[in-house]
Amino acid sequence: MIARQQNHAGRLLVLGGLLLSLGSPLLAHAVPMVNDPNGSQGMPWGVALTARPDFEITQPGPHVNEFQLKNSAPSYAGVPVDSVRFLAVDDQFARVTIRYQGDDRHKQILTYLEQQFGSLERIPGQMMRGLNQQYTWRGADTEINLTYHANTERGYLFIDSRTLAPRFNDRITDSAE
Question: Which of 10, 20, 85, 129 has its CA at 20 to 30 Å from residue 75's CA atom?
Fold first, then answer.
């Protein structure tokens, strides 16, 4: 009887783990970046976006400001996207967030990222499709994270300064006090 209960409990544990893994992002290790841009969209990390006339503040804050380009439709790598936001911490450019929708756009953006920053490692048996996909390229100065939710066809791309982006967490803690 006890052995039977242990076997049943073991099966439930395996089933629970399987269900959790299907609902959570595919956690793959970071691919080393081959061409670290040390910034994004031709701008180096740390530049003051407030000094640029082609940007407007969309969400001001005491330490963190969010910007967008004036008078241009949002796009990334020539692909139309829902939004492109540029974030600065203490007036230093530190992050770009891009949101998009559609499997076709996801494939175009993923292809561009692999061409520019390095091919993803295709491990035999690795699932490259699923409900949630996550890809990371890590360079000396820049980290790029792409998350795609296949069930809603929503994609999120974060391009971060590896030295400045951690300061967002510091500023969130400071403003909560």
Answer: 129
- Dmax (CA) for the chain in angstroms is 75
C-alpha span between 79 and 99 (Å, rounded): 11
Phi, psi of 96 (to 5 degrees): -125, 135
Q: What's the CA gap between 76 and 84, in Å, rounded?
A: 8
Domain residue extents for the chain: 26-176
Can you name the residues that pair with 100 across neighbouring β-strands?
155
38-62 average pLDDT score: 94
The string of pLDDT tens digits covering residues 146-175 is: 999 999 999 999 999 999 998 887 765 554
Contact 23, 16 (CB under 8 A): no
Instruction: Give the chain's end-to-end CA distance (angstroms, integer).
Output: 56
Among residues 91, 90, 94, which one has the least CA distance to residue 174? 90
Q: Rounded to an integer, what distance in angstroms lies between the CA atom of residue 164 and that of residue 158? A: 13
Find the angle CA(52)-CA(58)-CA(62) to the nearest 5 degrees.
Answer: 85
Question: Cα Rg for the chain, rounded, in angstroms?
Answer: 20
